[in-house]
Amino acid sequence: MTKLTVRLDGDNMVVVTRRFAAKPKSVFRAHTEPELMQKWLLGPEGWWMPVCINEARPGGRIRCEWTDGKGGDFYLTGEYIAVEPFSRTVHVERMHMPDPTPDNHVETLFEADADGTLLTLRMTLPDAETRKAMLATGMEEGMEASYARMETMMANGELVA
Amino acid sequence: MQSLDAAFSALADPTRRAILARLAMGEATVMELAAPFEMSQPAVSRHLKVLEGAGLIIRRVEGTKRPCRLAPDAIAEIDQWLNWLREAMARNYDRLDQVLADLEKTTGDDEQ
Question: What is the count of structural domains for chain A?
């Protein structure tokens, strides 16, 4: 029912789907109302979103800032292109780490599915190279986390170099 | 296991981490690696030498080229990370399930 799927589509798209046991209106609100977004859009354990601006109307601004409280900080900015309550939004976004990544064009669909909602995120990157770079950037971040864990283990004497 | 120290110093450099991330997408030649990083081929070669010395990449000979790929141990790290990414996303959506359950409880009466 709730299984997450992530797949590559075409040269430059990434498509994510997930089902929810809630009405499209609720899922839409959870994606567009800052006080709701701040409750779940957090990523790995230990991170939170102290700043969330989300003006869900065509031309409206998006700004989300995350922190782990230990000096790890990054933020995302974007603009809405289309907002069709409670079924579809289209926006562009970019991550700042701190240099901005190329624009990611995101269409989000909220479709009634049985008594729940099928959420589909269709992300379109400028080209195949950028998609590769986006996936690679994420991978680099993740490797950082892995190696940081390894370092901690070494410091604790759990892993002998 | 002296290679762990070498691995850490090799990984201290952001360009080398980016090269590893690129190799996670598949084998590449020096020329292919140099293009996205806007670096000269000798500069990339120097980074590759450090990565190879740290046991993070493996190079093979193919005519005049020496394509690189990630060493199996480095791949294990990345597999671990892909799981971590999926988990992080899945965790977000699991949290959202709870937010939605609460939301529907409070707005249930205006929906029919």
Answer: 1
Closest approach of A61 to chain B, Cα-based (Å): 22
A20 contacts chain B (CB < 8 A): yes
CATH of the domain at A10: 3.30.530.20
Task: Kindly report the pTM of this predicted structure.
Answer: 0.64
As given in the structure block, the two tokens for residue B95 are 């949290």
Asked if B30 is an interface residue toward chain A (Cβ–Cβ < 8 A), one would say no
Return the CATH class of domain B3-107: mainly alpha
Choose from B100, B102, B109 for mutation: most chain A CBs within 10 A. B100
**Given pLDDT bands bounded at 50, 70 and 90, which one contains residue A65?**
very high
Q: How far is CA B36 from CA A106, A134, A144, in A?
A: 24, 12, 21
What ipTM did this prediction achieve? Answer: 0.73
